[in-house]
Amino acid sequence: MVSVALGPRALLAAAWGVLLLTAPAGAQRGRKKVVHVLEGESGSVVVQTAPGQVVSHRGGTIVLPCRYHYEAAAHGHDGVRLKWTKVVDPLAFTDVFVALGPQHRAFGSYRGRAELQGDGPGDASLVLRNVTLQDYGRYECEVTNELEDDAGMVKLDLEGVVFPYHPRGGRYKLTFAEAQRACAEQDGILASAEQLHAAWRDGLDWCNAGWLRDGSVQYPVSQPREPCGGLGGAGSAGASGGANGGVRNYGYRHNAGERYDAFCFTSNLPGRVFFLKPLRPVPFAGAARACAARGAAVAKVGQLFAAWKLQLLDRCTAGWLADGSARYPIVNPRARCGGRRPGVRRGARDPAAWTPLRV
């Protein structure tokens, strides 16, 4: 059983633990540089955006920087249309925000969260509040004045963690749509290829292929071995090959007819995870009652991974999670806690053999 978070300081659960909601942190801003200039016209509009990327976290506030000016001083800022869109596919965009003079409008999930920064003439920067996991990606800032226009790109990245996931029924059980739902149920979204590559560079090693957000199937190998694609770089991406391993890539797969695991991504928690340790092991129903008695609910897998990665939760005791698995987070590896590498490990004991706890 999974309880629903309650109130403005709702309690989300851990494996026998609780997440307490707190306020989000502040924003981070990027520098500006010209990324595209329309040439050949003396009065062309020039858009400037951030180099690289800007970084935020779930629940945070971020400024997507964008400024514009004219190569000729004769132009004013009246009648300029500012439009922000999000790139959802190489050839597909979704509307985020439009401004024409005093008329401003945000679209879809950005309503109530997006507004212009308005820091003087030529500022088209967008303030985005209460950042969500779905906000990750590339945004286009377009400035149009009569027949002149220019655009620049801003990439919004999120601090977070990639975690591999498969349901209790076993590995390679998920279609692409089922992988999307599975990540959402565990407080995450399907990871992007860039996020998986970054996780591999950070040491993620997983010998089972999983869906990514773009419909491709890949898996990261930081310790090359024969059962995980061999010792060479065939089928690898990134700085792969030889002793360095790499991200093995199966390419784009039939998203309704083929089944794999999932690589999910989640960002920071609005609270913390802690463990409730009863006098003796308990089954899932007993753990759920114990959490509920404290105004909490059993934590999701993504919440435990976020607590391990971002809050440095270290506990050498397995506890229940919302999907019925038992896991524990290790920041400081030691022999009695599952080996010499940090990570979130599955509990070794059979949960079905655990005895009830009366609450």
From TrEMBL:
Pfam family, one: V-set
Protein name per UniProt: Hyaluronan and proteoglycan link protein 4
GO terms under cellular component: extracellular space; perineuronal net; synapse
Name of the coding gene: HAPLN4
Link domain location: 161-266, 271-359
Disulphide bond pairs: C207-C228, C316-C337
Signal peptide region: 1-27
Species the sequence originates in: Microcebus murinus
Any Gene Ontology biological process: positive regulation of neuroblast proliferation
PANTHER family reported for this sequence: AGGRECAN/VERSICAN PROTEOGLYCAN (PTHR22804), HYALURONAN AND PROTEOGLYCAN LINK PROTEIN 4 (PTHR22804:SF11)
Cell membrane recorded as keyword: no
Subcellular location: Secreted, Extracellular space, Extracellular matrix
Region (Disordered): 340-359
Keyword terms of this UniProt record: Disulfide bond, Extracellular matrix, Glycoprotein, Hyaluronic acid, Immunoglobulin domain, Repeat, Secreted, Signal
Residue span(s) of domain Ig-like: 44-159
SUPFAM superfamilies from the UniProt entry: C-type lectin-like, Immunoglobulin
InterPro entries reported for this sequence: C-type_lectin-like/link_sf, CTDL_fold, Hyaluronan_bind_Proteoglycan, Ig-like_dom, Ig-like_dom_sf, Ig-like_fold, Ig_sub, Ig_sub2
MF terms (GO), sorted A to Z: hyaluronic acid binding
Function: Essential for the proper localization of brevican (BCAN), mainly as a perineuronal nets (PNNs)-type deposition in the brainstem and cerebellum thereby playing a key role in the formation and structural organization of PNNs. Contributes to the formation and transmission of inhibitory GABAergic synapses between Purkinje cells and deep cerebellar nuclei neurons.
Record-stated family: Belongs to the HAPLN family.
Keyword Signal appears in the UniProt entry: yes
